[in-house]
Amino acid sequence: MMKKIVVLVVFLVIFLVMVVMGNPNSVDAGRPVVPTPGGSTSDQMNALSAALSQVSSPDMQKSLQEKINGLEYQEAVRASGIANPAPKAKSYCEGAPQAKESDLLENTRIQGILDASQGPFSSQMLRASNQWQGIFNAYWFHVYAGSSGEETNNGAVIIWIEDLNQLQFIPDPNPDGALTITAEHGTRLELTTANGYTRYFDIPAQQFVSDIATQLQAIDLPPIPTPLFDPCVQ
Fold it and tell me: Which of 96, 114, 165, 178 has the fewest Cβ atoms within 10 Å of its own Cβ atom?
């Protein structure tokens, strides 16, 4: 009896499998079949619209409309990109910062003897009569002539190396009142005392000297930084 039951169950299972395999659409019978046409976006939209007009199932209509909406959005994005293309990237030099006004003025600074102006120091240190400024070894030098702020009879100069922010007070070795720069001879300045006597000051050596011709050893300066290559400068 038990064998008959087992055989019957086996035959029943085989029968059910054959029924299911013979009707594969039965698994998806409740789902709407949505067409997936090929071709361009326009062709796909036309095909889906034609299918939408022929179906009556709400689920099928909803599925088709969602596909149409998605294609319409893609087409709108594409059309917007064509009508409003992204701006072309500027070249490096076009986008590079422009030269500052201070940089342009740097190239037009006056070199030579100038009227008195108070430098980056207190008037108690030096009462300036006038100054000389110029470039030496790629550095901006300023030499202020005048008298000591504490004793007006003591002439002196202050040398200021602008790029190094270095100041040095150098008194007249033979005080004779305030000093005034009256001439320049290359890197040697000629100064006049309050009583009309002449002094000479050597800029590279940063010291007073007795005449124009005497050679002095220049004071060592740190090397000027190597400027970076600018591809935008012609």
Answer: 165
Q: How many residues does the chain have?
A: 234
pTM of the predicted structure, to 2 decimals: 0.55
In a shared domain, residues 194 and 135: yes
Segments in the chain forming alpha helices (H): 2-22, 41-52, 58-83, 92-95, 101-106
Range of the domain at 44: 39-83
Per-residue pLDDT of the chain (234 residues; tens, 9 = 90+): 565 565 455 456 565 546 444 444 444 444 455 555 666 777 887 887 888 788 888 888 888 888 888 888 888 888 887 878 777 666 667 666 665 555 545 568 899 999 977 789 999 999 999 999 999 988 999 999 999 988 889 999 999 999 899 999 999 999 999 999 999 999 999 999 999 999 999 999 999 999 999 999 999 998 877 767 766 765
In a domain, 61, yes or no: yes
Number of domains in the chain: 2
- Same-domain pairing of 130 and 188: yes
Closest CA to 205 of 186, 224, 191: 186
